[in-house]
Each structure stands twice: as structure tokens, then as C-alpha cells.
Amino acid sequence: MDAERLTELLDCGFYTGVPDSQLKPLCDFLYCRYGTDPRRHAVAANEGAAAALAAGYYLSTGKVPAVYLQNSGLGNFVNPAASLLNRRVYGIPCLLLVGWRGEPGVPDEPQHIFQGEITPKQLELLEIPFLVLDRAVTEGQVRDRLAEYRALFRQGRQAALLVRRGGLTWSGQAAYGSGYSMLREDAIARIARAAGEDIVVSSTGKISRELYEVRQARGQGHEKDFLTVGSMGHCSSIALGIALHRPERRVWCLDGDGAALMHLGAMAAVGAARPENLVHIVLNNRAHESVGGMPTAAGSPDWPGIARSCGYPLAEPVSGPEELEEALARAARCGRLCFLEVKCALGARAGLGRPASSPEENRRALMAELRGG
Predict the structure, then answer these.
(1) Does the pLDDT at position 373 exceed 70?
(2) 193: Cβ contacts below 8 Å, ≥ 6 apart
(3) Whose CB among 68, 186, 229, 360 lies 3.0–4.6 Å from 111's, allowing a Cys bridge?
């Protein structure tokens, strides 16, 4: 279904959420139509925050908002769905647009398989009725289902459209950019070289894919890397856990700006623990690039300032390759908790591959490395 036509049928005055590749036609249309005007379209830090933003819109206007998200974000959505929106609590209606990654029978990445299996059950458990939106669904069917949903909204309930791969299209094209020039893969290659024999924990999406490719190009193994292919926003906490329990090993955390924003409170926990063997790097291209490129809010914060206020002794921004090399050298020898914001261009090279090893193989190799072989 055409994304623009769908928005006409929905007739929602406010959209908020976290982008998803299955919903890219909708996200591109919303960005072209509204940009990031927070009164009409707000890209949230995480899916739970999107639910709260939607609640604020309803409380202010009495109108039903729309929340878009990948099904992997339902975990973040559950708490406000059950304890805020639900009709037994405040009874705040909203319409969900959920990208169905890992749908049974549709090939997908390993981190999406189990989530895809349980997505319909999650929605049912939350008492959220849904229509599966695919190429075969007609405009009339959508219109009829929305009429049913509006009756539910008057009862303070929620409803959803569960979007299959290819279920949405749009002929337009959004132009995204970060304003920075350093290529992220080049930055990752420099970081991996500086890390040497240290442990590297990399975040969800293209950061982990590019780290894997850097190792492949150099003929190196992957046993020193933990590729966090799922659980967006938790990379720094994983790195913290390793750093605290293997103090003899230096740990480098390669975080993304969207991921770091999703669970920003993790930086306070890292700063409070202050492990001397952890280097936390946010590769900031101000975009959710792995799911299409829609902007994050990462261009606004003073990232080094946030890190310092959270307790990181050393924190600095980096804008180019020479600055990065100098900052990496300082981080490698300082013997204290460090933070670097590395400003990167939006975009990846054509043909970027994916890890050939499974998440379980990655986990076993890393654990063997940490245990000494």
C-alpha cells in the first residue's frame, strides 16, 4: 500500500516512533512531509518514549496519535502499554504501525527470528488487535478495519497494523545527511588497529557489520569481538559487564548515536562504575542509518559534556582522521575510563556484507578468548 495514501486514511495529527526498514516508505514520507517538526513528527529516543509522547499528545488534544516501530522495539513499548496506555489504567488510545521483522517463513537475520515468531502473541497479550498489512490487502480492507479501530479508540484501547516486508511503498525519496565527512568504516578500521589485542564490543547494525569486514580484510579472527546484532542500546552495558569482570583486559565499546540515545542512562552507570579499562566510543552520524537514515536527536547533545557529567574522566569530540588517531593514542595509554564522540558521514559502501558466523559462534569464540583459549 502507498504510504502517503495510508496516512490520508489514518488521518493522524501526530506521528512518533523509532524507524524501521520495513516501514521505510512511511518514514521517508513523514520526513519529507514534516521533517522533524516535533509537533507533527517526533523521532523518539526509544519506543517506550514514543508511547509517552503519544500519551502527551492525546492528553493535550483528545486526538488519537500514531506510533511506528520495528517489532524488536515492542519490548521497550510493553511497560507504558501495560501501565500507562491500557484501558484499565488511563485508557489512552493510539494506533501502532509495527514492522514485522523475522516473520516465520521469511528469511531474516538471526536476531529477528524469535522476535518474529512471538510478535503476534505479544500484541494479543497486550490486548492490541491488529491487521497484517501486505501487498494483497486492499484500501477498502484498511478503511473498514480503521473504522472498527475507531470504535476501540473511543473505549481507550489501542490497535495496530502489522506490516510485512513489502507491505508499504512510496515513490518519493528522502535526502538524509549528517554534515560530517569522515567515513565510519575508515574510523572503525583505525579504532580496530588502535585496539590491537584488546576486546571490542560493537553496536547493532552497520557498525558491527563494518567491524566484521575490517577484520576479514586484514585476515584477522573475530574472537576478540562481540557483535551486538540485537538488543539496540545495550552495547555499552555489555562492554561494562566485561570490563568489570575482566579488569586485566582493555575493552573498547563501539556505540552508535541512535543506540546510545535509546538507553542514555547506561552512560551514568558506566561513569559511576568508572572502570579504568573501558574506552566508550560513540560513532555519531546523527542518523538511524541501518534502518533507512532518518535523523536522530544526536546532533543536539554535547556528548563529551554528557560523558563528563556522568563521571567519565576523559571525554572529547573527534572530527577527522588525524584527530582520531591522536585521540585513540591518548585513550590507549591513559589508563582511565575514556569517551570519544567520533563524528561520521552518513552512508556505507556498496556491497557491505554481514557476519558469516552465527551469534552463538561469536559468543563461544569470545568466551574462549576471555578464558585464555
Answers:
(1) no
(2) none
(3) 229
